[in-house]
Design a protein that fits this description.
Elements lengths: L1 H21 L2 E17 L11 E11 L4 E16 L2 E17 L2 E2 L8 E2 L1 E18 L2 E20 L3 E12 L26 E17 L7
Parallel strand pairs: 5-6
Antiparallel strand pairs: 1-2, 1-10, 2-3, 3-4, 4-7, 7-8, 8-9, 9-10
């Protein structure tokens, strides 16, 4: 009788343990904040890390698996400089939609020996920028497409939080980021050299939070 009770207890414990693994939660997405600095390369500046300006923003990450995700970000900053007798301090709002790839199996599961709580990642996609631009007809808000690319590193901070380090480069498909017509096409290269287009570089530290919890059969996702 005692042996039977022990056997039933062992079976019940095993079922509970396996059930707890199967019922582990995954999260479909992350949402968070960004903060850091930025600089631009264009007609009034051709040196890296010159005229740095503070930046801040928001990030949303839709996760497909431990390697792939799509991120949407919004960043606000300014570009600052002097050129052609013009001093500018132009506000920029940048919106990006990028595909993201983790170099490591970014997960924290004891039954996945190759999973890691940190990973290097790269991203690329399409974006756009809003900024004021002044010419002979006055000032208006411009929207221009951009090509964002970049690299980052992420760390898990417990079950819900992630620390992100992100360096992005946005190639603007125009030469107007300074916001002043006097600085547009100063070197007479527009239309003939894509590398004359302005570039916005941003380094951000972000904190993201897991949302949209789902149940998963983790035993089949090794």
């Amino acid at each position: 009788m005692t042996f039977k009770i022990i056997r039933i207890s062992i079976v019940a414990f095993s079922v509970f343990f396996v059930g707890s693994i199967v019922a582990q939660n995954k999260f479909r997405a992350e949402i968070g904040i960004l903060g850091g600095g930025s600089f631009y390369l264009g007609d009034a500046n051709n040196q890296l890390f010159t005229n740095n300006q503070p930046s801040f923003g928001l990030i949303y990450r839709q996760k497909f698996d431990t390697r792939l995700a799509i991120t949407g970000t919004w960043n606000k900053t300014n570009v600052l400089g002097t050129g052609a007798g013009v001093t500018f301090d132009n506000p920029i709002n940048a919106i990006d939609l990028c595909g993201e790839f983790n170099f490591s199996d970014y997960d924290d599961k004891i039954y996945k020996p190759n999973s890691k709580k940190n990973s290097l990642f790269i991203f690329a996609g399409i974006g756009g920028m809003f900024f004021p631009y002044t010419n002979f007809s006055g000032t208006k808000t411009n929207f221009m497409f951009s090509y964002p690319i970049g690299v980052g590193y992420k760390f898990m901070l417990g079950e819900r939080f992630h620390l992100n380090f992100i360096w992005s480069q946005r190639l603007l498909l125009t030469d107007k980021m300074e916001g002043a017509s006097q600085l547009n096409n100063a070197n007479k290269l527009n239309g003939s050299n894509i590398f004359n287009n302005d570039v916005l570089s941003t380094f951000s530290i972000g904190l993201t939070y897991n949302i949209w919890k789902k149940q998963c059969d983790c035993l089949h996702n090794k």
